[in-house]
């Protein structure tokens, strides 16, 4: 895979999957702009990736997104790749207990944030003669995840947005795909599993074998595997792939 000469914006790139993707894209030759809301993690990634443009921006705030694109355009001019990675896990609770605020915040970051990022990317892609968008969904956007109604619904919406954009933006040579990670080995995966176990009245030790049994490959996936799929889709190797929702999950069947 080669991303030499390409420019990429990666949202929520200061930690987790976004950071690993920013590192991988840099290794493969891309010039990277990343944003996040966490000050400490931003300072850390700025040191680790000195050539990257590191910005503080909340994707659910359209003013922040406009400022991000202004700073991006001033530095790079041309946009080739947008990785819409930012997404919060939302509450783990029965749907009847979900508050208005919890529902709205999950939709704002996970769905509206992707829309804000895409809307501003389109003129840059048009100018560049094409481009590529990778939206982070989840297997929870393919298999309904109990006790996580806001999150699961938002990740189904990401797949809907992906399908619509693939058709609409195909006209300007923009490819749009979604990645559906399964259980990812990292801090967030661990936290979500602990919450799922607690919601079922089980300990994490009891819950994990039960959960992994429903994955054909009986294992978590790594952040690097998600970053590699994003790089493959963004590279010329993926030049005829658009409108696809690709699960990287070891074949996850049910919750
Ligand atoms: P994470 O929880 O580790 O968070 C990564 C970063 O997102 C953090 O640095 C945080 O500050 C930033 N962030 C939060 N809200 C933001 C906002 N409004 N604007 C900008 N940045 C924001 O996440 P992760 O596990 O790396 O997940 C990345 C993506 O992959 C998400 O969309 C997530 O839903 C999806 N995903 C993750 C898993 C998993 O097991 N980790 C599984 C399926 C899908």
Automatic annotation (TrEMBL):
Residue ranges that the Swiss-Prot or TrEMBL entry lists as coiled coil: none
Full protein name: NAD(P)-dependent oxidoreductase
PANTHER family named among the record's database cross-references: 3-OXOACYL-(ACYL-CARRIER-PROTEIN) REDUCTASE (AFU_ORTHOLOGUE AFUA_6G11210) (PTHR43180), NAD(P)-BINDING ROSSMANN-FOLD SUPERFAMILY PROTEIN (PTHR43180:SF28)
CDD domains: SDR_c
InterPro entries per record: NAD(P)-bd_dom_sf, Sc_DH/Rdtase_CS, SDR_fam
Keyword Oxidoreductase: yes
GO MF annotations, alphabetized: oxidoreductase activity
Protein family per UniProt: Belongs to the short-chain dehydrogenases/reductases (SDR) family.
Gene3D superfamilies the UniProt entry points to: NAD(P)-binding Rossmann-like Domain
Keywords: Lipid metabolism, NAD, Oxidoreductase, Steroid metabolism
Signal peptide limits: none
Superkingdom assignment: Bacteria
GO process annotations (BP): steroid metabolic process
Keyword Chloroplast attributed: no
